[in-house]
Amino acid sequence: MQRKRPRVVSVKNGGMKFVNFVTEDNPFSDELVAPDSFKQACGLIPGYQTFTFSNGKEIIGGYNHQSGVFHGIRKFCTILGIKNFSKYNLVLLSYEEGSVNNISIFDDNFLEVLFPGTPLSPAIYIWKYISTEYNRVTNFWRQTDYINVYYGENAWKLQVRSRGFKCHRTTIREGWMEFRGDMGLQVGDVLVLECDDYCVHHFVVRVIKNGSA
């Protein structure tokens, strides 16, 4: 754990990014302080924020304009059953227009920590978000489009839909629940969709069962 807290901002590779080193004085449990250079570069940051972690878990938080602090991250600590992130090294926040934030946690070897869990939500949800990390694929889709996924001799047609121009998030809509049931997916399983560079509407499915990774 570091004693000093460098403030780094980057505009490369899509969106704004900054890091906070975890320190003994600030073990980081709920609030992430944005540096001045970040606030100046981003302009008006919405008060309502969504945070997405490495395991795909999304939590709702916010941004305080007066203090320049992102908050609400304690919910993720509660899910993990930890008090704070004191045993880790640094936190990276990647901010994109539309209140979309990806938060990555790194250990002392600067390797990203993959927390237990999965992008799969409890069964009450009838759609599934696709991370903005895969925009290089989803940008080729129309606002409402369809993709085909294949597993062995089985195939499914799924509707995908963009949420609009400002928020680049895409969701799998129609067909998701049937697909999930047919595949026998459970919370904790990781679903991998692989496609050829020139065929972004057809995907081969691979499943990593919870506990087998």
UniProtKB/TrEMBL annotation:
Cellular compartment(s): Nucleus
Residues annotated as signal peptide: none
Protein keywords: DNA-binding, Nucleus, Transcription, Transcription regulation
Record InterPro entries: DNA-bd_pseudobarrel_sf
Molecular-function GO term, any one: DNA binding
UniProt GO cellular component terms: nucleus
Name of the protein: TF-B3 domain-containing protein
Organism: Daucus carota subsp. sativus (Carrot)
